[in-house]
Amino acid sequence: MKEQTLARAIAYSGVLLAIVSGAVADDRAQGTFRAGAFAIDITPEKFPVESAGSMTPRLAEMAHDPLHARCLVLDDGKTKIAFAICDSCMIPREIYDAAKKAVERETGIPTENILTSATHTHTAVTATPTFQSKVEVEYCELLTARIAEGITQAAAQLEPARIGWAVGGNPRQVYNRRWYMRDGYEYEDPFDRGTDLVRMNPPRGNSKLLRPSGPIDPEVSILCAQALDGRPIALLANYSLHYVGGVPSKSLSADYFGEFARQIAHRVGASDTEPAFVGMMSNGTSGNINNINFFEGSKSQPPFEQIRLVAADVANSALAAYERVEYHDWVPLKMLETEVELGVRKPTNDDIARARETLAAAGERPYRDRRAIYAQETIHLADYPDTVKAKLQAIRIGTLGIVTTPCETFVETGLEIKSKSPLSPTFTIELANGYNGYLPTPEHHALGGYETWRAKSSYLTLDAEPKIRSTLLGLLEEVAAQP
């Protein structure tokens, strides 16, 4: 089996090398490769605003640092593709779709060639209804317009460029957050089923800790564009870290994603370039990964300090990769998009009856008790459709592969895609083009735990992950095979 896998990888490498070599040789016939980038401010103009990322309502009265939609447009002379990485917890498909249509009208870039995603900072404005946070409707209108404007501006700044990529590593800032506990530990769930076998975010350094229920992905993947004179245009990074936190409850912040963008600009010597350099950190597959060292615990930090420390460390890892980037004058761009229909885990009549009883005894909102919070989620999910459609994408940039999911995707999925992709390297951008909740593997569904508890943040059926994963690998095969 290993021999077959190795042979397959060698064969694909040969095919891709031939494709890229031929493409570079035919540079003039294909056209000049171009890139343009722009970071647009998406900080709300009015306060207070509801802030996402919590089970209970939270009002932000200020922004500690600006939120941005960081945009990159690439053009190989035949195909244009666009990225917009937004400082938000999660963004519904309707906002992205409206922004993409506006971009297509203004620039001609097809909507199916536009990748939009949320970073998953837990201290941004509520744009998607989850738990008890109310959507800020007026802000959503601003967000839609700014995403479209940012991509349009990036397209307007297209210039002859070179493109390259590399992979670094940083295992120091990522930890699997789902744990097996020792015998005698009592797992609790909001439905009182008593079937969970793992605990999300257990007490740090606790004597009942046994082992994490899964791996991590330490890779820091980067895609870089530079002008022909060597001036950095943009750096798009990808790292599988949920978020960092340590932000006061009444503040908005782009979390480490925004701090990384600032620090990487300084490290590559692009703090004062014109047009402005755009650093971007996209979220990989971090549905079961965070920044907490459960093995040993860690000392508490002042607000924003852990964000700064993590961003600095990951920026150093990205810089090490940046110094190894090999740039190409031209590579082919290919992008495919499709939809998959996924089942919804609807509550039963008994589930709904129990939820109503729980809410009747819970008193007035907002609810603080976890049983009441999930009872309300049960009532909401009763009105969901039986199936939903999710948008998936695959991109080829030379020999680099990128895929997207609209979910908080588990690290096992990302690692499997990387290992089986016909393109090398490959990475996944999660929370892209919409929001469809957590995406546990079937094995993790069997273990239970927070990420599997039925709610607006976790409602897809158990077969959703295999279906999404196989579809993405199929799309990678297609873009890899295209001339």
> How big is the Rg?
22 Å
The pLDDT mean sits at: 94
User: How far do the termini sit from each other?
Assistant: 29 Å
Structural class: alpha+beta
- The unreliable regions are 1-29
Question: Major sheet, described briefly?
Answer: 8 strands, mixed
Question: Helix fraction?
Answer: 25-40%
Shape: globular
Report on this model:
The N terminus is likely disordered. The protein has 11 helices and 23 strands. The chain has 483 residues and is α+β, with helices and mostly antiparallel strands. α9 packs parallel to α11. The chain has 2 domains: 443 residues, no CATH class; 31 residues, no CATH class. The longest helix is centred in the N-terminal third of the chain and has 24 residues. It has an 8-stranded mixed beta sheet.
Gist?
By secondary structure, the protein is α+β, with helices and mostly antiparallel strands.
